[in-house]
Design goal:
Blueprint (H helix, E strand, L loop, with lengths): L9 E15 L1 H7 L6 H13 L8 E3 L2 E3 L5 E15 L3
Antiparallel strand pairs: 1-4, 2-3
Length: about 90
């Protein structure tokens, strides 16, 4: 619930055709570190993100030392969603 904070959760339902994919946004955090990445590393990180690979499934290094982070899963959704007035129970 800490992730939700003070936001109100709502029920939703997809309407009509849709497509979605899940990705680990921790890859973005890795690229934002204050280290330099060569073009090949950036390419490999981008490919892993779009393939849906979790960072915890890979051995990453920053400044020559192991880097680890728990996955932060996000969903990319293309389609229509209708939200309901009824909020989810806390």
């Amino acid at each position: 619930m800490g992730h939700v904070g003070n936001r109100l959760l709502r029920q939703a339902r997809s309407v009509g055709p849709y497509a979605y994919s899940t990705h680990d946004s921790s890859w973005v955090d890795f690229l934002r570190l204050n280290h330099s990445c060569d073009d090949e590393t950036i390419h490999q990180v981008a490919q892993a993100y779009w393939r849906g690979v979790n960072v915890e499934d890979c051995e990453l290094k920053s400044f020559g030392k192991p880097w680890a982070q728990s996955p932060i899963i996000e969903v990319l959704y293309l389609g229509r969603i209708d939200f309901y007035d009824r909020s989810l129970p806390e």
